[in-house]
């Protein structure tokens, strides 16, 4: 995997990302740019980089956008998030990229439109990203991230409601630990 960073000064953040990315061997032949930019609707966001040239060449590149702070809270900086929580966030975003790479660049355009318009599809995509991250060994980190968001006093209720509505419930994460057969559809992605 070819990783580049843009506007990220924290060596701890870079190290956390590299450690998580190292476990995603199925992504070894792709390029990922991790960049700190303003993300309005979330704290992190994985996206394919689609250009006219990439639609025809099939070349796949991705970026992970990283907000400088936790959504809706300017005082909670991403650089200060505990490493295990940060790794859970990165594992989830890389789970999206594992999911995205199965689709052509052209298909990803329709994928994005469906994600924006269908709440049911959005929920499935977010659950899949968590299942993929768990299947790559990030059970504890995904759980730590969920606990951090849901239980942190400074994180706003709107963000907490979004996490509870669209993302894999903590109970399902715990269930994956007890019954790994749940992860079978995600093990060969």
Tell me the layout of helices and strands.
Elements: E1 2-6, H1 11-22, E2 31-36, E3 44-48, H2 52-57, E4 61-66, E5 69-70, E6 73-77, H3 83-100, H4 105-117, H5 119-135, H6 139-151, H7 157-166, H8 170-178
Describe this structure in words.
With 189 residues, this protein is α/β, with parallel strands linked by helices. It has one domain (2-186). The chain has helices spanning 11-22, 52-57, 83-100, 105-117, 119-135, 139-151, 157-166, 170-178; strands at 2-6, 31-36, 44-48, 61-66, 69-70, 73-77. Helix 1 packs across helix 3 (83-100). The two termini are 16 Å apart.
Helix content: 40-55%
Distance between the termini: 16 Å
**Main β-sheet: number of strands, strand sense, barrel status?**
4 strands, mixed
Mean pLDDT figure: 88
User: Total number of helical segments?
Assistant: 8
